[in-house]
Amino acid sequence: MVAKGDLNPKRENYSLLIKGGRLIDPAAKIDATMDVLLRDGQVAEIAPPGKTRGTAHEKVDARGLIVAPGFIDLHVHLREPGQAYKESIATGTAAAAAGGFTSVCCMPNTQPVVDSPEWVTWLQQAERGAVVNVFPIAAATHASKGAVLTDFRALQRAGAVGVSDDGKPILNDSVMRETMRLSSEINLPVIQHAEDTRMTDRCSMNDGPTAFRLGLRGMKAAAEASIVERDVQLAQQFTGARLHVAHLSTADALKAVRRGKRSKSHVTCEVTPHHFALTDADVGEYDTNFKMNPPLRSNEDREAILVGLADGTVDAIATDHAPHAPHEKIIEFERAAFGITGLETALGLAITHLHRGHRIPLGRIVELFTSGPARVFSLRGRGTLIRGSHADVTIFDPQKRWTFDAAKSHSRSHNTPFGGAQLTGKVVATIVSGRVVYRAD
Amino acid sequence: MKQAARGSLLGIEHLGAPDILGLLKLARRMNPLKPRPLLRGKRVLLLFYEASTRTRSSFEIAAKSLGAMTTLVLSSGSSIEKGESLLDTGYTLRAVGADVIVIRHPQAGAAALMARYLDIPVINAGDGMHEHPSQALLDAYTILRHKKTLKGLQVAIVGDIYHSRVARSAIHLLSKFGARITLCGPAEFLPETALNLAPGLHITRTVEDAVHGADVVLTLRVQKERLAGTKISLQDYVLRYQMTMARLKLAKKDAMLMHPGPIIRGLELTWEVADCPQSVIVEEVRNGVPVRMAILARALGRAR
After folding, report:
1. Which ipTM value was assigned to this complex?
2. How far is the C-alpha of A283 from the C-alpha of B6, rounded, in Å?
3. Residue B131 contacts A, CB cutoff 8 Å
4. Domain extents for chain A?
């Protein structure tokens, strides 16, 4: 269940002791059985079992479980303002808590678009009812129309952790160059949804045998890779520029990111669980729960991404949680909205496919959910549990087998391809600022 | 996902060979000139979101020849214009008493979507670039009026295969029965990935190679506006791919020239080819009626 949230409870004089769990904190290079004492919203102490000093108001028995820094999702759509029929900040963050995420970064493609400091502030107000930390990403251009840049400094001051026209990529070279230049001055990450939409007109899935079989126009991998290649070059031109490639899905785009990283420019990327778990063949007979953008790709792309996840090229797993109402999904495939929900299945998919399926160590998976994403957006004091960090903790059972029931999702929408999926690895408790906000039933 | 109602015909891809043979056999017993009241009292809804001459009229005549009532709903002039969704239109037609819905729609998967949510059979009369199963069945029926078997038959399919639901359905059907199929067209109309559609496919970019020694030549319509977005000009296309008498002569002597229609004389084929003795274009249209009678009879469980 998810606690009725209030992110600013009286933090003083409250303490919580997490006992006997296996602490995996990649940033601190810890993988050992440890007790974790949280006090006043911070990590007060890490010590071998039974060795913490002082008492705690509450104790959580984590024996047999993994204790990790709170998970961070760099890419969610909370749909507020304006589209609460799909999701609200309250329901979206409840789903996040159930998925082990203590922080989510929300995309600005709402109605209206979050392109002003006022909306950035609005998203963070307590009245929104968030149960986990919400970090807004602001639009890079006014109304995300790709023409006039927003006021990056003011947006950053209001709390924006990055700028992006997600869903509406910045195609114009000079606008993108100016975006990189201005953001580099204030060290603000630019997040690009890499898609040359001039190549993907009327396309609804990946180009390949399945699209041909279904008679659907296919998006070519080059539509993603060409934009990533251009952006990586632009990022190299400005000292301090930070390019983050959203939901990277193709082998060629991954190559471009590798080149960028080797050239020492600040390029990072995220991968979604559905892109490492599924391929375009899974679209089957026009199942719109398998329709998202970027689309599910070929198995070759999927395998390249698995390599990138294992070898460190990929910085973070992000869900691109994109809730939609039934009337936007239960329609003709080509007309259906792009996007699927993903917060509650991310960990299970990662452990099932990456750890069990491809022998990626749990430590690396925890890194992809914690210190990796924290670094991408410079979320200070998060993604680690060293003393003095924010008391955001995710406790999970890596062995637990379970079946995801989409109807019981905390999200307002149920557009997931993973309904009925049998997964291994489940969140047991989610702690934000030292308070338990979710505990598995 | 839910299953389509029994008797639905959504495509050839997932149809078994015995099912196809059953339909073809049944079609042979159907004769529009000798009406049989197999579907008396049944209501056949023809729901057309796209223009159609052949498919629409032959489904209607097929239904009436079997004693059914037909009602035609076009997207223009109906509540579809007011924004009613596909499924709500389906529920409405079901509520007024439709026993079967025949649907033509510009979007791939439209028939499958409707079939998944309705408890009456849905017949796909063409969905976007996906499938046109009744056309493939009537083509197979036509071929079998002239050839003993589909097995080993050399078939050339020439033209805009990428955009063609007729091609996809024909390829599935002919491949299931062991025909040797050569696909021919410029890369814009025939991506290499087409080879994955079914077993036993070949691609050539040279129409002479495709036609050489063929038993059946299936030409496809080419829409001028689709050439506009490609590197190939109309003149180039005509020069390289148009079916001419000279090219048709490369096929077997008794080769059949087929085309699903509408034909554009002077574009994908010449005037002479359209009317030559080997052309079965008009016969295809005629055969559409008994084949669609069989499809409707099967849909409503009156396949006798």
Report:
1. 0.97
2. 23
3. yes
4. 70-376
